[in-house]
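stuck on this chain:
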Amino acid sequence: MKTQEYYLDYFKVHLSSFLNAMETEPKFLYEPVRYALSAGGKRIRPVLCLMSAEMFGASADKAIDAALGLEIFHNFTLLHDDIMDKSDMRRGRPTVHKKWTENIAILSGDLMSLVACKCAAKTAVNREKVLETFLQTAIEICEGQQYDMDFETETDVSVDEYMKMINLKTAVLLAGSLKVGALIAGASESDCENIYQYGRYAGLAFQLQDDLLDTYGNAAVFGKPIGGDIAENKKTFLLINTINLASGSTKKELLEWISKENFDRDEKYNSVKAIYDTLNIKDLTIKKIEECYSIADSYLQKVSLPDSEKAVLRNYMDSMRSRSY
């Protein structure tokens, strides 16, 4: 049985070949693309695509172009997110707009989105459905990003609204990656839907874990400074629930920190985290993560394959549950 390491190594080899064959001029168009795609990362989306394709009976080489497209598109969204969020660091390195300029980052990101579509279009089997899934996923990610930006100026964001946002911004790309692999393998409509829903709920859990790690993780392992969400008053699952649950002097202190324009970052982080601790927000978030993973598992069980055929995918996603990065 092939392992998750096999799929990751297989993808890395093909990504390296892809980058080596990429154009070099204009330098400040292509160099940032190469920089962004060579920064590492978990490569979850392409691995899921390759695993899904082989799980349903296709060989990985049939899905590699789509897998490349998914990873390139994912990194494009990160590149533009970093501009919008004014982030200085990504995966332990300066973000593209900090290393070069915002204009260079915007144009290189635009190129990445087009190259991603071009890769997906190389798919030989079920090309129309693969492209439809790929492009619909891309549209939904843009919708999710807009909701995320809207939340920056909204004072009353509900948990349901937040879950809708992360479904669009994060979960649909994991779901779409699995569905694309299934489509390339010619899986049935019901199996494509079940594997999609599996990825969607696992993706929700994945983003909630990111929220948790931004406050409770280790910066050296996480790849970026801890506490960014707190510093920016980002409407995460943690903050929204804290606003809802806090009362009296605790809520007054929280709202004062949220309203402050000038503050010591470490002091704000430690103070807001202490409020989270008082209200058991970490445990509440872990409970929601486990709930999402449980629903995801119920959809994987519906996929009409023996459990032995699902083992690699299940093991891979289980490893994501215990990640610290």
